[in-house]
């Protein structure tokens, strides 16, 4: 059953209209076109730029915390913002329950991601060897993601003041309005707290710069590794014809 909220929707002024009405399309267009062009024209720059050889232990802990946290946030944002509200209503998931889930699950994932990000940032800034091999872009993107995590986590006390989910519904209506080309989409977020607005603008900016950073490795994460089948390398010790070496049979190795 559809749930009603008393929501106040402001009419977007020029700034809100520019940032939440037009900027999302610019950011998404640059994300898609830029990634395709980079993949096509500079395939050898398409990498995560690993610094694993240097200070491995700190990298492992920081990287696992950061990646698990960010992937959980990514999945939560995707499902939470883009699933039509009617589907949650049909499943009987109240807006309040969904808001609570975003706060608790998002909060835990956010804390994991920020702990990992701070470890990785510390490693990049204070290990002289890693600092020397890091580009400005490597450190900048980590600092931007850390700032985004701080802003995201700072929304939790604000969301906690709207446990009926009314604020969250505004973000869902906005995000879905953008993807369905609704002209008044920006109105839904025009009246929200500035911390939410800063989080949305920086999130869109991360989309915008995505193709120019090491974040592109997200699109080619080797997840197929998890399900790949082993293969067999068969080497022969038999001498090549004419090499004069004796024939010793074959050796088989299974590599996973
Ligand atoms: C355009 C991209 C993004 C949009 C539109 C967006 C939107 C939002 C919204 C609306 C909330 C509040 C959810 C609620 O409580 O109702 C939120 C929370 C949060 N966001 Fe984002 N976000 C974006 C990108 C990111 C990124 C890239 C990160 C991490 C690097 C992130 C991390 C968080 C965290 C940690 C929270 C608090 C926990 C939660 O509610 O999930 N966000 N975001």
Provide the descriptors you would attach to this structure in a database record:
disordered C terminus; mainly alpha; 256 residues; two-stranded antiparallel sheet; Fumarate Reductase Cytochrome B subunit
Describe the model:
The chain is mainly alpha-helical and 256 residues long. The chain has one domain (14-227): Fumarate Reductase Cytochrome B subunit, CATH 1.20.950.20. Helices cover 61% and strands 5% of the residues. It has nine helices and two strands, in the order αααααααααββ. It has helices at residues 14-41, 56-82, 85-90, 95-126, 128-133, 136-159, 166-179, 194-209, 224-227, and strands spanning 231-236, 250-255. The protein has a two-stranded antiparallel ribbon with strand order 1-2. The longest helix is centred in the middle third of the chain and has 32 residues, at 95-126. 21% of the residues are buried. Residues 70, 73, 76-77, 99, 102-103, 106-107, 110, 145, 148-149, 152-153, 155-156, 159, 168, 171, 199-200, 203-204, 206-207 line the site of protoporphyrin IX containing FE. Protoporphyrin IX containing FE binds next to α2, α4, α6, α7 and α8. It comes from Hyphobacterium vulgare. Its main location: membrane.
